[in-house]
Design goal:
This protein has four helices and six strands. With about 150 residues, it is an alpha+beta fold. The protein has one domain. The longest helix is centred in the last third of the chain and has 17 residues.
């Protein structure tokens, strides 16, 4: 839900200097994360990611957008929701991953977008809140293949 994360990330810096992954050369961008996603999706698990972004998008979100084709190729379903279209949604204050509807991984970041750690939550009320928020965003968000960032 942030408009930028760790701007010292070597991949982001390389992108700023013009590096782009070649869609035709999977071996150049097939990372362990993407291998894992491919394996999990092959077992029938749906991996969905929703990104809430300000428009016009930040340079960091442009970097994420430009590289999202790799996630999609691995089997992730990704949607984008312009922040102005989320005003009436109740959203948690932190990024999160929900696993199997029972485990929540909350990510914490400093003001510069660098990770300061995470916590695992199993409280059913918190999981319900985050699950409902995600579904509301997912329903409203635009699939990656159709999203044209401003």
């Amino acid at each position: 839900m942030r408009d930028g994360y760790d701007r010292t990330d070597p991949n982001f810096i390389a992108w700023q200097y013009g590096h782009r992954d070649d869609p035709a050369d999977r071996t150049s961008w097939w990372r362990p994360w993407l291998d894992l996603i491919t394996e999990v999706v092959a077992r029938g698990v749906a991996i969905r990611r929703a990104r809430i972004v300000s428009e016009p998008i930040s340079e960091y979100i442009r970097f994420e957008y430009d590289g999202t084709f790799t996630n999609v190729a691995a089997g992730e379903q990704i949607r984008w929701l312009p922040r102005r279209e989320a005003t009436d949604l109740a959203l948690p204050g932190n990024d999160f991953w929900l696993f199997d509807g029972t485990i929540l991984r909350i990510g914490h970041f400093n003001g510069d977008g660098r990770s300061t750690g995470h916590e695992i939550v199993t409280d059913p009320d918190v999981i319900k809140l985050c699950s409902q928020a995600f579904e509301a965003v997912w329903e409203r968000a635009v699939p990656h293949e159709q999203y044209q960032p401003a």
